[in-house]
Amino acid sequence: CVLQPTECFLSQPEEKQESPVKAKRRKKKKISDVLQKSAPKPGVPADLQNLLTQHFGENRSVIEIEELKLSDSCFLPANDLSHSFSSYLKEICPKWAKLWRNHKEKKSVVMLVLCSSALRSLELIKSMTAFKGDCKVLKLFAKHIKIKEQMNMLEKGVFHIGVGTPGRIKALVEQDGLCLNSTKYMILDWNWRDQKLRRMMDIPEV
Known about the structure:
The protein is an alpha/beta fold. It contains 10 helices and 4 strands, in the order H-H-H-H-H-H-E-H-H-E-H-E-H-E.
């Protein structure tokens, strides 16, 4: 009879010790909380340049790092609210119709658009209708599409624009499914923020 109450008393303080630990776990800061406190700033050319230097800095010589540097004239900012995606593309590529009609190479695209998600890719494909005309656009993301399907399509047909995520595009290049020799334009969906308010450069996997 004496052992029973002591067992009950021992189990109660253990429960009390666990509860503050659980409370602490809930209070962990999320990246969205941090971003919400600071006003979202649009990306600038220096952001991309710093990212390239950080990524390649350890494995490249001084000369190779210099070759990676892009002048500000290589960038056309899309922070002007008067631009739609199609009108932005028309401004950076005024001779698009001639370019895509002359493109005959398989396993390649003339323009590559990189987005942070599959849903964002679909959104941009819909919004470039006025720009693309009759040229062929290929979805280059992992959601509901197998990499072998994309490789087969690139091998059998001629596509002019590829829109997708960095992970899938990287995999296609590494597996020789996509060749970048014919690529003239690379569009980074740099300033768009997802539900967690992250830009593409804020996602560690990218």
